[in-house]
Amino acid sequence: MSAASRDDETEGLPTRSSMVRGSGILMDTSVAKRGVAKHSPSDVTLNFVSASVQDVAKAILGDLLGLTYTVDPSAQGSVTVETTSPVRRDQVLGILETSLQAAKLTLVQNGALYSIVPLSAAQHRGTLVDPGNSGYGSEAVPLRFVNAAELKKVIDPLVPENGLSLGDPSRNVMIVTGSANQRQTMRNLIRQFDVNWLKGMSFALLVPQWSDSQSVATQLKEILDADGMPTHGMVRIMPIRQGNGILVISGQASYLDQARKMVEMIDREAEGSQRRLFVYNVQNGRAADIASVLSAAFGGGSQAAGQTNLATAGTAGKNGSVPSAKNEFSSGSGNDVLGTNKRTADAAGQAIKLGASGEEMTVTADETNNALVIYATPPQYEIVKNALHRLDVPPLQVMVQAAITEVSLTDEIHFGVQWFFQARQNTYNMTQGTAAALVPSYPGFNYIFSNNDNIKVVLNALSNITKVNVLSSPQLFVLNNHTATLQVGDQVPVATQSAVSTDTAGSPIVNSIEYRDTGIILRVTPRVNDSGLVLLDISQEVSEVGTTSSSKINSPTIQQRRIASSIAVRDGQTIALGGLIKETRNDANDGIPFLNRIPLLGRLLGSTDNVRGRTELLILLTPRVVRNPGDAEAMTDEITSKMKSIEPHSAAARPL
């Protein structure tokens, strides 16, 4: 085989296709001698199901084969080795090696020592072994007739990933890496190309994207070998099922270009007519949510559940064939495709009609892998993929800083906190309703600080003139359009129904009990628009349990103060919600025991104190939009520094 220059490669080949043009320069090196490992034949049966690596190694390598072995401490997991019929002793190592690969482990031979190590560790070692060695390793394969660099480009799609590499260019050596079976397969593949009759020939490996290589090869051979064609008898065409490739060999490099164009043309005809199975890995959302959006956007029908045979719903190409399956799935960009001719799935799919022809496609959400399985024609998938790129975007996050406080209404702010805010240069409104239409309503009020004062500044200003009791000060991260809930309190049993049997005298009363949440309950749902405005749906409840005095029902009374509102606020601005005032009264009589209870005389021998208190529930909220991981990290650092700043340094110290 002749060497070829990279500059002479034909551009525009299908994806994963390679072409090598002949130049007539003969490459010849001596062939290394290959050793052969001999084993005494003996029939054995293996039956290990989910056994530990150590147990399998001891039973097979130690007890059965009598080999010296080690098991790397990091080689953990279970291994299944089963044979349906007796196998020869010299086949056991290959079977074990294949079974270890399922657990991402491999067998490495170093002289008389066999080691079981993680596959990743063996790949980094890059140990050169003899062809007869068992286990994972690398072999140097010298070539006689072909150029190693050019051959690698052709057969790379047919071998395992990282299975081929180039050795010393001056010696024309190729390095094959893998298990013993994989190395043997790659050696045999190289020998198929490294033959004398390919001397001076040009060849190409063409890989159809949408069609079966066997079908395309048949059509291509009929065209190029037709009577009267200049390519008649000048081109050899061989389908390669592994990798879905077509090997084209010719003495004229220009004929390879003709073959490539014909393969692309045949493949393109099948592309638009056949429905295929695409897998889109959702990166930033939930597959089920996106599937529902697609169904609604494209006018999807009702959800159909059960077993679906995708082959019966497909459309065959002009040659009546359906593409064979490939072991390739699309990534998040959705560039690759999995073709199939027989596949059933237990799934719930959304049937969506696209185009005037009314052709249906199916979108199924795989919640386990957070992926969308789409059965459609390539043009249909392109439409859906464009929509997916707009829907599957990183979600915004919002950090909500909150302070839930009780403010004592002293003489200076006897009429409420709203009068305190009015004296400052800010904007406020008495509100109850949505952000779009703020409806005045007393006693509640809504207040936005126009100069971006933060919560700490507001609390410090209030604490200078009255007593401020901070009930809770949470800081929550929540996804955009999701609800964050904070609850600190107890679940209180409340009697909702009482029943007694009328058939039996003296039957006990049976009460039905429900548990009610009490304490501090905050629910916030942020919605961020492109301009940075944050719409907040807020529900705040502060409830206490008291003794029932209005009835004889043996059930507690829940005293509740609750604010529910929707408000629009800029990123970083602080909003205050309040106006819920609670009044308490405490009457106390002091004096000489018993005598202070005597009418008229008791007033002369004692004193009466009537203490009244008024507190207002005040809620301060500051939303901060997190648009990227850097913002999240900065906010986390800010929270950490604030927590450290209020950390007590002595037993006497306490947080404000």
Automatic annotation (TrEMBL):
InterPro entries: Bact_Secretion_Sys_Channel, GspD-like_N0, GspD/PilQ, NolW-like, NolW-like_sf, T2SS/T3SS_dom, T2SS_GspD. Residues 316-341 are annotated as: Disordered. Residues 46-114 form the GspD-like N0 domain. GO terms for biological process: protein secretion by the type II secretion system. Residues 461-627 form the Type II/III secretion system secretin-like domain. One of its GO terms (cellular component) is type II protein secretion system complex. Residues 321-334 have a biased composition (Polar residues). Keywords: Cell outer membrane, Membrane, Protein transport, Signal, Transmembrane, Transmembrane beta strand, Transport. It holds the Pfam family Secretin. It is found in: Cell outer membrane. Residues 139-197, 278-397 form the NolW-like domain. Belongs to the bacterial secretin family. GSP D subfamily. This is General secretion pathway protein D. It comes from Rhizomicrobium palustre. The lineage of its organism: Bacteria, Pseudomonadati, Pseudomonadota, Alphaproteobacteria, Micropepsales.
